[in-house]
Amino acid sequence: MFRPIVPSDIRMHWHDYQKIEDISDEVFRKIKAGFDAQKTDKPLVSINIIAWNEESAILRNLSSLSAMKSAVPVEFIYVDNNSKDRTSEIIRRCGLTPIRELKQGYGFARQTAMENSRGKYILTGDADTAYPPTWVDTMLKPILSGKSMGSFGTYSFIPGKNQSRLRYAFYELFRDIVHALRNINNPELVVVGMNFCFPREEALKIGFIKNDARMEDGQMAMALLKNGKLKRITSSPSMAWTGTRTVEKSGSFLNAITSRILKEIKRIRIYFQNK
After folding, report:
1. HSE value, Cβ hemisphere, 13 Å, CA-based, for 180
2. Which residues face 123 on adjacent strands?
3. CB-CB contact of 160 with 243 (8 Å)
4. Main-chain phi, psi angles of 231, to 5 degrees
5. Could you read off the pLDDT of 7-51 as tens digits, one per residue?
6. pTM
7. Is 1 inside any structural domain?
8. Range of the domain at 70
9. How far apart are CA 17 and CA 20, in angstroms?
10. Which letter does DSSP use for residue 13 in this model?
11. CATH number, domain at 239?
């Protein structure tokens, strides 16, 4: 799917700030009211968000989730994985109580979030990412209909100042083609922790890997696939929207897409191999 613009229901939550002092009391009150309206004692879904030093980005995530519109009861679990900034303070001012995980690592944080969840299903997300109000119900649909045991979505980038959304849309189009090929025989290679839904009971039996490597999502997906199907969802109502930090690690947009194309050409053959 080609996505040339950022939807308004995402853009409205992409607050421009650098530190907590830049955030008005009115913004905090509005977000807290949104979470208060969604409080429940019997959640069907637990949204798990892990955070590490996200003071300058997590408000966007909190703002979007506070506006979630779901037909099912939802709870929000935030884990602060040893942030040295004021990440936890922002979470608290938005009306939620973060859980502290002292063991550093994605797997440790994901596991702690899951163990503190009460929902039948876990929906994992990232602290620097915003979600549409339809996210929960769209990700749950194939599960509740019995078509799959879990689901996973994809993500798009929100460009920074003086950056073109159009060029990221083309980058994502190429990536989505690659992911579609991977999904034929290796769906675990497509799963991302920022957009992954699965049954809590089965996942607790498996457990997230205990390390700091960014592969906790794929390892969980691989184990879950032994028990059933995971449905890939790419529609706009399920789309996660994040910043461009991962792309910028390559130095520039051109370097990022060039290295990605060369890498995928070298390994495209393995996507068609049966396990």
Report:
1. 8
2. 47, 197
3. yes
4. -90, 125
5. 999 999 999 999 999 999 999 999 999 999 999 999 999 999 999
6. 0.93
7. no
8. 8-272
9. 8
10. T
11. 3.90.550.10
